[in-house]
Amino acid sequence: MAVTKPDEGGSSRAELSSRLNWLRAAVLGANDGVVSTAGIVTGVAGASGSRTALVAAGVAGLLAGAMSMAAGEYVSVSTQRDTEQAALAKERRELAEDPEGELDELTDFFRGSGLDDGLAREVAVALTERDALAAHAHTELGIDPKALTNPWQAAVASAAAFTLGALVPLLAVLIPPESWRLVVTVLAVLVALTASGWTSARLGGAGVVRAVLRNVAGGMLAMVVTYSGGVLLDHFTG
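^ that's the sequence the OP posted. Answer follows.
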């Protein structure tokens, strides 16, 4: 019964790591949506008070950003998946051509992990009989052959996260009266950036205060720069 623990533990760690990576990617995607869309709508607000212009710019920024995130994530995950599949194919070939050598390699891994020779061999044999490819993929490659990331799933999740983040400044600038637009947008973005900074820090095990301040400062800077640019553009072209 003890011989299955290395594989189960590796699988559990891989699943937990994958889940955390997904959560972190979702938070970062939402954060990008908040910052980029906030920059766009405040920039347009600085140049024009037109509701139509704000709607057009905000929606265009949301759609363009979501599609860009989806495309980038699809390409990135597809490349990662191709690399993992190539590594798994190489492992399958090696298992077919030299099963004894691969068994010795797995034994050496467990011996290097602190098991004595007899137990290391016993664990290697048991895992090989259970699923040789999974055993080698976990120990040598850190890959779960049954849980490769789906690029389409990653693309949709990334686009959805960006869209949710982008809706915060877009709605904040459209719903209030014109005199309150900028104040409400800044406050909404401030809250959203604080939440995303706190969440990303907790997921990554980093210091919360520093992460939140860094996140808020970056978002506020983006809004100040784009709003100032809009005001200057309106001054010189209005």
